[in-house]
C-alpha cells in the first residue's frame, strides 16, 4: 500500500510504503539492523519505525526524520529488505484451528481501538511516558505489559491480525534433542502370552551415538550399498562384544541399543543427502539418485536441433534366413531420436556389435527416405507417414561409435557438431534409453526366443531353443512398432509448444515434427542420398568382369549405362579392372559404384544370377560364406560312394579274370580285326531283342485294354429312345 510520495528540497522523487522492511545502517539514533515502517506523518516530517531485532524485552516504536531517512536511501546506507514470517502464520483462514482464531480475536479486541486511532503511533513514539496505553488498560480491565506484548507482536508481524496467532506449533522445541532418563523411551513390545515378558531395552546414550557414527562411517559410507541391519550387526560385534558375552554368561538380555533406535539415530546424526551420496558409487548416484536439474529439452528448442544416438543388444535370439535351425545370436539395435519431438528418425538392426561400422549405417538410414526402406520389408507407407530424412544441427552419441579417426573425419563435416556422453551416464541420453524400454515392453519381450532381460539360470529353459524369427522379420516388426510410437500421444509434448493447440492436433511426435516443419521452425538440413553414403560409408573395391560388377564369387551387379556391355567385353578380353564402391550392409540388392575415375557414384542393382541374395542383410551373406567354407572342407565320401567303389572294383576284377581265361593273342590286329562287323552284328541283335520285348508289351497292353472295354460294356445300361411321330 502506497504511503507517501514526497519531494523534499527538490530531491529525487521517492516512495516509502507502510509495513516495508528496511536495512538501516549508519543512522543517527538507531542501531544497525532491520526496521519495519509502521506509519508516516508527512505534515510533521516524521516516519515511525519498529526494530525487528530478536529481543525478549518489550520495545517502543521510534520516530525518525523523513528527510534524513531519504538521505540515507540516497547514500545507500538504508536499503529495502525483507522479513520472513514464521511458518505458522502462513496459513489460510480455513486451516487455522478454531481455538487459535478465538485467541487471536480476543487479543485483537484489546488493541483494536488503539491501532485504529490515526495518531496513536505518533504519540507512542514521541512521548517518553505515553498515557494512552495505561488509560486503555484500565478501561479493558487488563494490565499495561499485556497490551505492550500484544502490540509488539502486532507491529513485528506487519500490523496484521494474523500476527496475533499463538505460536503453539513451536511448543515443545520440535527438532531439538532431549536428554533421556532411566526409563526406556518408545512403545514397549506387546505380548499376548501370559507369563512371558520382554526385556526393557536401553536408551541410546551419547556414548552410543558416537559408536553409531563410527559404525556408519566404517561400514556404510564406503561408496557401496549395505543394509542398515547388516551395519547394525557389525557394530554389535565390534563395539558391544563384551556386553553380549557377559549377558550370555548371566543368562540375561544384553543391554544394547535396538535396531529401531539405531535406524532412528542414523537419520538424526547424518544428513540424509550425505548418507545417500556416500552409500553408493558416484556413477550410480548421478544416474539414479541425484535430484533432477531440468528437462530433456532445456538446450534444444526445435526439431533437428538435437538428435540422440544409442545402441542396445535386443533381448531376443534370432535364426538364419537360410536355415531356421541355426541360431545366430542376439542382434544389435540402433536408434536415432529427435530430442525435442521424441520422433524416432532412424533405426538399424544388425549382428554387428556397437561400433562405427554399425553406427554409420543408422546415420545413413536417418538421413535417407523411409518409404523405400519400409518397402524392402513389405511395409507400404507414404512419405508423410515417416518424413525423416534430414541432417541435425547436433548429434549426441557415445564415444564407442565415434572413437575412431575415420568416424570424426566423415561424420563431423556432414553433421557439424558431435557431443559425446560421459561413460556410464545413460541418463544423459534419457530419451533414447526410454524408447528402448518401451520397445522391450511393447514388442521384444513377447517374441519367440526372448530372454526378457533376465540372465539365464541353470535349469531354466534355454530361450535359444525357442528362437524362430529371422533378422528381417524382427526388423519388420520393429519398423511397425516405430510407426506406432511416432503416432502415439505423449502428454509431455503438449506443454512444449502452442502450435499443436492452434492447429488442433494431438500431441504426437509425428504431429509435433510436421507442424514445426510447416512453420519453418526447425534446424534440419537435407542432403542427397548418394552424397550421404559417399561421406559415411567406407570405400570398398569391386571389379568389372565379363559377367558384370563382381563383389564376390556369388554376387554380381549391373547398371543401366549404355556402355556397360562394352565394359564387360573389354574386361573379358583385357582383364578385370578395379572400381570404388559404397556397400550398404543392410541391403545387398544394390551398391554405389564409381564406374569412371572422374565421376560420382552410380547405383547398381543385383543381377538375376545372384537373385538369391536379393534384400539380404550382410549377416545372412556372411552365414552363406561360412556355410560354403564348411561344405568345401567336408569330405566328399559317403556310404553310396564307398559301395559304388566296391562294386566297380569287383566288376573290374571279374572282367580281368575272364580275360585271363581266354587264349592270349600275340598281335594287336588279331584283337581289333573285324571290329565294325562285330559292332553291326551287336546292334542288330539288340534291335531284335528290343522288338520282341516291345511286341510282348503291346500284346499284353491290347489284351488289358480289351478286357477293360468288355467290362465297361457289360455295365452300360441303354436308354430306350422315344418313338418319333411319323406324321410330324
Structural topology:
Layout: E1 2-6, E2 14-17, E3 21-24, E4 33-41, E5 46-51, E6 62-65, H1 66-74, E7 78-81, H2 98-116, H3 120-126, H4 132-140, H5 144-156, H6 206-220, H7 228-239, H8 241-250, H9 259-269, H10 272-278, H11 282-289, E8 307-313, E9 318-319, E10 327-329, E11 332-338, E12 344-350, H12 356-366, H13 370-375, E13 395-397, H14 399-402, H15 405-415, E14 418-420, H16 430-442, H17 471-486, H18 491-494, H19 499-502, H20 509-518, H21 529-536, E15 539-545, E16 548-550, E17 556-558, H22 564-574, E18 577-583, E19 590-593, E20 602-606, H23 618-633, H24 639-661, H25 668-672, H26 675-715
Observed structural traits:
elongated; 728 residues; six-stranded antiparallel barrel; 26 helices; alpha+beta; five-stranded antiparallel β-sheet
Q: Would you write up a description of this structure?
A:
This protein is α+β, with helices and mostly antiparallel strands. 42% of the residues lie in helices and 13% in strands. The chain contains 26 helices and 20 strands. Strands 15-16-17-20-19-18 form a 6-stranded antiparallel β-barrel. Helix 6 packs across helix 7 (228-239). The model is unreliable at 1-13 (pLDDT under 50).
Amino acid at each position: 500500500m502506497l504511503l507517501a510520495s514526497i519531494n523534499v528540497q527538490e530531491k529525487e522523487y521517492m516512495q516509502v510504503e507502510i509495513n516495508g522492511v528496511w536495512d538501516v545502517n549508519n543512522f543517527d539514533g538507531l542501531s544497525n539492523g532491520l526496521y519495519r515502517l509502521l506509519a508516516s506523518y508527512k505534515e510533521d516530517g516524521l516516519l515511525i519505525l519498529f526494530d525487528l531485532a530478536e529481543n525478549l524485552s518489550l520495545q517502543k516504536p521510534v520516530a525518525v526524520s523523513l528527510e534524513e531517512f531519504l538521505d540515507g536511501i540516497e547514500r545507500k546506507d538504508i536499503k529495502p529488505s525483507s522479513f520472513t514470517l514464521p511458518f505458522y502464520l502462513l496459513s489460510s483462514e480455513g486451516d487455522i484451528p478454531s481455538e487459535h482464531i478465538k485467541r487471536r480475536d480476543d487479543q485483537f479486541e484489546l488493541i483494536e481501538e488503539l491501532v485504529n486511532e490515526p495518531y496513536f503511533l505518533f504519540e507512542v513514539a514521541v512521548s517518553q511516558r505515553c498515557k494512552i496505553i495505561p488509560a486503555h488498560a484500565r478501561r479493558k480491565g487488563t494490565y499495561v505489559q499485556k497490551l505492550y506484548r500484544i502490540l509488539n507482536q502486532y507491529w513485528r508481524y506487519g500490523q496484521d491480525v494474523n500476527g496475533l496467532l499463538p505460536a503453539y506449533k513451536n511448543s515443545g522445541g520440535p527438532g531439538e534433542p532431549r536428554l533421556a532418563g532411566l526409563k526406556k523411551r518408545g512403545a514397549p513390545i506387546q505380548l499376548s502370552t501370559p507369563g512371558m515378558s520382554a526385556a526393557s531395552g536401553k536408551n541410546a546414550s551419547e556414548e552410543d551415538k558416537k559408536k553409531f557414527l563410527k559404525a556408519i562411517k566404517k561400514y556404510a559410507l564406503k561408496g557401496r550399498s549395505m543394509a542398515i541391519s547388516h551395519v547394525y550387526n557389525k557394530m554389535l560385534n565390534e563395539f558391544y562384544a563384551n556386553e553380549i558375552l557377559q549377558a550370555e554368561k548371566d543368562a540375561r538380555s544384553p543391554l544394547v541399543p535396538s535396531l529401531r533406535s539405531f535406524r532412528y539415530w542414523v537419520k538424526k546424526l547424518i544428513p540424509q543427502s550425505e548418507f545417500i551420496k556416500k552409500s553408493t558409487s558416484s556413477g550410480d548416484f548421478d544416474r539414479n539418485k541425484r535430484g533432477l536439474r531440468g528437462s530433456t529439452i532445456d538446450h534444444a528448442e526445435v526439431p533437428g536441433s538435437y538428435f540422440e544416438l544409442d545402441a542396445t543388444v535386443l533381448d531376443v535370439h534370432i535364426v538364419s534366413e537360410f536355415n531356421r535351425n541355426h541360431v545366430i545370436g542376439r542382434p544389435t539395435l540402433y536408434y536415432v531420436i529427435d530430442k525435442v519431438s521424441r520422433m524416432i528418425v532412424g533405426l538399424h538392426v544388425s549382428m554387428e556389435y556397437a561400433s562405427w561400422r554399425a553406427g554409420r549405417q543408422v546415420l545413413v538410414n536417418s538421413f535417407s527416405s523411409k518409404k523405400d526402406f519400409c518397402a524392402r520389408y513389405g511395409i507400404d507407407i507414404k512419405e508423410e507417414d515417416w518424413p525423416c530424412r534430414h541432417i541435425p544441427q547436433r548429434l549426441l552419441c557415445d564415444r564407442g561409435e565415434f572413437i575412431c579417426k575415420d568416424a570424426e573425419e566423415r561424420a563431423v563435416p556432414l553433421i557439424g557438431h558431435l557431443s559425446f556422453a560421459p561413460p556410464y551416464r545413460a541418463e544423459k541420453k534419457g530419451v533414447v534409453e526410454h524408447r528402448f524400454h518401451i520397445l522391450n515392453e511393447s514388442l521384444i519381450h513377447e517374441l519367440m526366443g526372448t530372454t526378457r532381460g533376465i540372465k539365464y539360470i541353470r535349469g531354466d529353459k534355454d530361450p535359444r531353443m525357442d528362437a524362430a524369427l529371422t533378422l528381417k522379420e524382427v526388423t519388420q516388426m520393429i519398423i511397425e512398432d516405430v510407426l506406432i510410437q511416432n503416432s502415439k500421444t505423449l502428454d509431455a509434448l503438449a506443454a512444449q509448444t502452442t502450435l499443436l493447440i492452434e492447429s488442433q492436433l494431438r500431441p504426437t511426435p509425428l504431429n509435433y515434427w510436421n507442424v514445426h516443419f510447416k512453420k519453418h521452425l526447425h534446424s534440419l538440413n537435407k542432403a542427397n542420398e548418394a552424397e550421404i553414403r559417399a561421406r559415411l560409408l567406407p570405400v570398398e573395391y569391386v571389379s568389372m568382369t565379363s559377367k558384370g560388377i563382381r563383389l564376390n564369387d556369388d554376387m554380381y551387379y549391373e547398371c543401366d549405362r549404355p556402355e556397360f556391355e562394352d565394359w564387360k567385353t573389354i574386361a573379358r578380353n583385357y582383364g578385370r579392372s578395379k572400381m570404388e564402391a559404397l556397400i550398404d550392409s543392410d541391403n545387398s540388392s544394390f551398391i554405389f559404384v564409381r564406374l569412371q575415375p572422374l565421376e560420382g557414384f552410380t547405383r547398381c542393382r543385383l543381377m538375376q544370377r545372384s537373385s538369391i541374395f536379393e534384400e539380404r542383410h550382410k549377416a545372412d551373406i556372411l552365414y552363406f560364406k561360412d556355410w560354403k567354407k564348411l561344405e568345401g572342407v567336408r569330405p566328399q565320401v559317403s556310404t553310396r560312394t564307398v559301395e559304388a567303389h566296391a562294386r566297380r572294383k569287383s566288376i573290374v576284377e571279374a572282367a580281368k579274370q575272364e580275360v585271363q581265361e581266354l587264349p592270349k593273342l600275340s598281335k594287336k590286329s588279331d584283337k581289333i580285326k573285324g571290329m565294325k562287323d562285330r559292332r553291326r552284328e551287336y546292334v542288330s541283335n539288340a534291335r531284335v531283342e528290343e522288338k520282341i520285348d516291345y511286341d510282348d508289351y503291346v500284346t499284353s497292353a491290347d489284351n488289358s485294354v480289351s478286357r477293360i472295354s468288355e467290362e465297361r460294356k457289360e455295365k452300360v445300361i441303354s436308354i430306350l429312345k422315344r418313338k418319333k411321330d411319323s406324321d410330324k
